[in-house]
Specification:
Chain lengths: ~325, ~350, ~325, ~350
């Protein structure tokens, strides 16, 4: 079941590629200090967003947290509207009112991201409640980090979603850190988040979050159950953030020692982009030339988008009071 | 016009709104009990059934987020808190998300028309954690609307208006008012949000009052009339948006302002309205503004302490007389006996 | 291990008896409407408080929730100070400032009860943190209901207590209802709270909460581990509340139908007091005459205490501002 | 006296307090990072080690309860929030329990001397959920003390005082002030809680300001002096208890009051202080009070919107001149360039 077609596999790779190249380019530009908005880059974690979003239907809705660019893009968000938001331009997806952590794109099924840990887990659950009440076959998805699983709202939401059998998929991107705090200072040793979710009667799976095909397969499997009315599911994707918690630099550039360069490099060895590319090549699903051509295409899209974003217009000061109530 | 109690009016407003709009549903602790939030959700449950009126576990923060998420998908959730004190747990969702939603996403994420109904307790030993009124606290933050019905007609009218509004609205209902009777139109007539109401015209002093204090002010005004003092009573109704025009017009007319609130003074309604007058009607003020609010301590339990803690009609009347430099006779007689018997 | 001595068993019975007779008397007096404070009586649930508190040492501290009289009394609280609090008298344990839900008695190791669900679970965890920091062999205990396990703070506390290996015993009195809401509208079917606690790496046990000896034994066992530094533990006690949620009446007196009279009667058959008495008699650990003499003693204590409480003094209005900051 | 930055002063106050009192410990997200809350916990960690300065998971509500429970056992916990906006999640423990603890248990349960340090953000696109200042919201509730150091000396002094106080104290530290230098005594001199500070004497107008607005007000006052206007600047420092005497004395002296706050107007500090003057110094007021606060909307992100959102020195100066019925020349030059580069 769910052995993805070659087309799907190629799309999954392309999605990871697009996320990677966009984030890398944005991170490079961010160093110019012209994007004045605290930004949490998702480099290294692309396979989660790409894998899960490929398994969604158009009418499904996605919610995200502070590290949201990947989810926004994987869900079809435009690089232009994202970059314009980072540049504080009126053309930004949130018209320069939200910044990096407050993205929106309902037209392509990305509802919102929000900066307060755990917030959107409940909100996604609520959208799922609406779907269940209306008897429509839509699914809500929340992406969040391992630290959100320390917030009470996560468990309140699990309990509610399971009690009501809601069509929601909760996707935890476990990148082993909350800012600079490793798991062991935040969770009892031996913790398995899937065990916790299962104790709330959710179907729960852990997956290699750097393997986009594995993520896609696990998400598809869980989503099948969700769509069949079997209630909510939990997917834990083990992954790793390459850059600093907030900002465009590597931790070692900033002389931070909370995690070692060796650890980072070991995880970079497991690069989701390279792994996906190698797999396509090994399976003969794509050629090296195709991969390269795709990269060129994406870079072109990104370059055009960021240039246009930077040339966007500033919001008028008179528009300060738009949309208050 | 027939009379209804405040509780009946809340119920009728809810039912009529639910008739008009199938997207409305009601949830929260105890909404589907036979006692149905002091009777206010019983008829809605009877009419619309458990698919639209249903219980919730004790999980204030997530429940509010769930309401937001449902609202984002086109629903109009009503979240009910049997005591508004429990809402502290939901402040993050309410203030950091619902209130900011429309603005923060540049208007592109739509709106989240969540209505929060929450009951304010008072007396009978409910104590410090079951008798606060969080209206000023909530109303400090742009993006929320916060209303406090005092009269039965507004209990219905503000419920209707809240359920037609496109943004998040908090309705704080005062437990001591649930039994109050008054005229209420049969038709679904909304009370516009953000509009105060001159509930009694007068010429000597303006009393701006919130929630239960409106009723106390009216009682005081009736008594003061016998003393030859003409009191104008303004029911603030909405603390965000605040109807500055109505308040200022009254203050400009009488030249004297007393503000009576159901919460504490510091950073509360009594200070806000006093400041408004001092900034925008200064030239018309004939004397210092006066604020009446809860005693500056947490709510006690023991009856004699409760009596000292809460301002009431006689406190208002005494304050008005002193603003006019008149001494007050014994006014305690105007305060109703406290015959509350529960359920609290 | 922990086979309690006859002396302990007799004390356990006496504790249940004292709780029962006090609550019944207070509930009777409450009908006079002279105790003006919303009160949640614990009739039917006495074995939990009695069993756990008997297993504690003098230097341990207990926290409770809204249904707190049993815990207050089992921890050595005086009937007089409790009754005086209900009557709003200055002699009340909280000087008439707290009411039924806000009791205190630090002198006998009962810190506080509080009316907001879940609040004291965290607070007890914090006291345990202080004990661990100081390296003292004290234990903190929190009593709470099944509904508190729906609040996020419960899970935040479990996670913290287990991460830090804190000496705290969390005791859930699962009486199947939150106000009038049965478990099934609040928790996914098949829920085992112990499974949840175990997923947070707590040692967790479920016990018959109407069997004071079983509660005592389970609590002692878990407390041994807590004292040995094995970290927090969770004890779920299955029990049932006889009276209405708040107030002195039976639900059937008030024509409430959220639970059936049959259900109540089945649980009354499992009366913790009668079961403990029968056990003592069967084991020859006490005679009928002794049981009766104890009852007379307790009734005497209670009668004297409530009379004195009622005759207590009202707080002076001038004392309104005592103890604000 | 040597100069320290606000951040250094916060650190020194904490370290000296911890030296004096072994019961003090510090926890919260990021307190033990090498960046240590903008450097303010680094020295404490170095000196007292991880047993007294340690990280916490993201669990604001329980963590506050845990601090309360530790305090009840004799500890003096310091809970740090990198942004005070996260504290909404902890409001229940803070307001419904810590603030009421001493009162609600009749003084019999002792006290819970929890100190909450929380950083207020501003600008650089931090947006609506990372740049609020919850001081008025918290200070509405009896039982809490809430202070806002503006000058480095008070950053140290209020930290020391908070850590000697027996009740819960919230310290709101403004991110934009962390780099500000000023004289700070070497000795551990507490700044008494509940006492405002006349930081500049003047005769024409009183500006009561909170937190960052004190610095803006001082800048405005310096400029206005050149225009021949003498401004008295009162640093409110403590919003609960509020030092009414110092404020009233200044208003009675100058007869004119402008209040400048770092939060919104409605139910905020600017209204409270204005109301105080209108009630208790009315006879001395020569004209309407004036309030300056955030624009009445959530905080935007885009730079030109941020510029329109925040009042600053030039806004204060312009307002003062208009209170004196003088027109202002171009004053924008007195506002410092925004050269913030993070970490935000
Ligand atoms: C309620 C709340 N507490 C604290 C923070 C500060 N904060 C922002 S991101 C972050 C780390 C989150 O870690 P995780 O959820 O694992 O996501 P990651 O950054 O690793 O992707 C923290 C603590 C916040 N935004 N909200
Ligand atoms: C945060 C919060 N939400 C709601 C309530 C209202 N409330 C008071 S008691 C109660 C039921 C609690 O049930 P449970 O915890 O199982 O204890 P029990 O009453 O059954 O002993 C509820 C919902 C509250 N006190 N606090
Ligand atoms: Mg993480
Ligand atoms: Mg229960």
């Amino acid at each position: 079941m769910h052995s993805p077609t070659i087309e799907t596999r190629r799309r999954l790779y392309q999605s990871v590629l697009r996320l990677r190249r966009t984030e890398e380019r944005l991170a490079a530009l961010y160093r110019d200090q012209e994007m004045r908005t605290p930004t949490h880059f998702g480099v290294g974690q692309e396979a989660v967003a790409a894998g899960v979003c490929e398994a969604l239907d158009a009418q499904d809705v996605v919610y995200s947290h502070h590290r949201c660019h990947n989810h926004y893009l994987a869900r079809g968000g435009s690089v232009f509207a994202l970059a314009a938001e980072l540049y504080g331009r009126d053309e930004g997806c949130s018209r320069g009112r939200g910044g990096s952590v407050h993205l929106t794109g309902p037209d392509h099924g990305f509802m919102i991201s929000s900066a307060i840990l755990g917030q959107t887990i409940a909100v996604a659950t609520g959208s799922a409640l609406a779907f269940k009440m209306d008897g429509v076959p839509r699914v809500a998805v929340a992406f969040f980090g391992d630290a959100a699983c320390e917030e009470g709202i996560f468990y309140e939401s699990l309990n509610y979603a399971a009690t009501h059998g809601l069509p929601v998929l909760l996707v935890c991107e476990n990148n082993l850190y909350s800012t600079e705090s490793p798991l062991q200072v935040r969770q009892p040793s031996g913790t398995q988040l899937c065990e916790r979710a299962a104790a709330f009667k959710l179907r729960a799976e852990q997956v290699d979050g750097n393997d986009v095909f594995a993520v896609h397969q696990a998400a598809s499997r869980l989503l099948d159950g969700v769509r069949q009315g079997r209630g909510p599911a939990f997917l834990e994707c083990m992954t790793y953030r390459w850059l600093e918690h907030v900002g465009p630099c590597f931790d070692h550039e900033m002389n931070r020692s909370y995690r070692s360069r060796e650890e980072l490099e070991a995880w970079m060895e497991r690069c989701p982009l390279r792994r996906a590319g190698d797999a396509l090549l090994a399976q003969g699903a794509a050629t090296r030339d195709e991969l390269e051509a795709w990269r060129v295409d994406v870079d072109h899209e990104v370059e055009e988008a960021v240039a246009r974003a930077k040339a966007g217009s500033w919001p008028e000061p008179e528009s300060l009071f738009d949309n208050v109530y | 016009m027939r009379n209804l109690t405040y509780a009946e009016a809340l119920s009728e407003g809810l039912v009529q709104a639910m008739e008009q709009d199938p997207a409305i549903f009601v949830t929260g602790i105890a909404v589907d009990y036979s006692s149905g939030i002091f009777g206010t959700t019983v008829e809605a449950l009877r009419r619309f059934g458990p698919s639209r009126v249903f219980d919730a576990p004790a999980m204030e923060n997530a429940l509010t987020g769930i309401a937001i998420g449902a609202a984002a998908m086109g629903k109009r959730p009503v979240v009910v808190h049997p005591r508004n004190d429990f809402m502290f747990l939901a402040f993050d969702q309410l203030i950091n998300l619902a209130a900011k939603w429309r603005y923060m996403y540049g208007g592109r994420a739509g709106r989240v028309p969540v209505v929060v109904r929450a009951v304010v307790g008072k007396g009978w030993g409910q104590g410090a954690t079951h008798s606060q009124s969080l209206h000023a606290t909530l109303a400090h933050f742009p993006g929320l609307k916060v209303v406090l019905p005092a009269l039965p007609a507004d209990a219905k009218g503000l419920t209707l208006a809240a359920l037609q509004d496109d943004g998040p609205v908090v309705i704080l209902e005062h437990r001591s008012l649930f039994g109050l009777s008054g005229p209420v139109p049969e038709e679904p007539v909304p009370t516009p949000l953000g509009v105060a109401n001159v509930v009694r015209a007068g010429t000597d002093v303006t009393v701006v009052a919130a929630s239960l204090m409106v009723v106390e002010a009216l009682r005081a005004a009736a008594e003061l009339e016998k003393e030859g003092v003409s009191v104008e009573v303004v029911d603030i109704r909405s603390v965000r948006p605040l109807d500055e025009a109505t308040i200022l017009a009254s203050v400009r007319k009488t030249g004297r302002l007393l503000v009576a609130d159901t919460s504490w003074e510091l950073y509360g309604v009594s200070s806000e309205v006093a400041a408004l007058a001092a900034e925008r009607a200064f030239a018309d003020l004939k004397g210092p503004v006066r604020r009446l609010a809860l005693a500056n301590c947490p709510a006690p339990v023991s009856a004699p302490l409760e009596a000292a803690f809460y301002p009431k009609a006689s406190t208002i009347a005494t304050a008005v007389l002193s603003m006019l430099r008149r001494t007050a006779g014994p006014l305690g007689g105007i305060d109703p006996a406290d015959d509350f018997k529960g359920p609290y």
